[in-house]
Design brief:
alpha+beta; 5-stranded antiparallel sheet; 5 helices; 41% helix
Length: 154
């Protein structure tokens, strides 16, 4: 009798676990589709500033496939003259602040492309664990290094 009850209970647990896993996979697939369909570059970094995700639009802006972006930092992909701007932006994210700034991306062939990055801290369980960023080609007249507040929804 106990074995029958236990077997039924295990079957229910396994079914529930499978349903939760399938639901999680569907949500993850949905999030990936949203990020990949964006016309803006979307990047995600960890707490060390290393890219853990870059969508196809970001790859086109940086001039390299996402696999070559992931594992690098923004410092490896921008001109050294703009590294002070990256440091300031990283410090702002570590303090929980969002903002936008302009830097020059250095593509593999040596071409420099001016971009606008709008970054925001990425939180997990109340702690900052990296950042999210939207990357777009910057208008030619945009002032270099300008740090402006990120647009707020609502």
């Amino acid at each position: 009798m106990l074995a029958l009850w236990l077997a039924r209970r295990i079957i229910r647990i396994v079914r529930h676990h499978r349903q939760v896993r399938e639901s999680y996979e569907q949500e993850l697939d949905f999030a990936r589709q949203v990020m990949e369909s964006m016309v803006h570059g979307v990047t995600v970094t960890d707490k060390h500033g290393q890219f853990v995700y870059a969508n196809q639009a970001a790859a086109e802006i940086y001039g390299r496939p996402p696999e070559e972006i992931v594992g690098n930092t923004a410092f490896a992909l921008t001109t050294p003259e703009d590294h002070h701007l990256l440091r300031a932006a990283q410090q702002a994210r570590q303090r929980g602040r969002s903002g936008a700034y302009h830097v020059r991306v250095q593509r593999p062939g040596g071409e420099h492309v001016r971009v606008q990055v709008t970054g925001t801290p990425r939180f997990h369980q109340g702690r900052i664990v990296g950042s999210f960023a939207s990357v777009i080609l910057a208008p030619e007249l945009a002032p270099a290094g300008q740090d402006t507040p990120a647009p707020r929804s609502g």
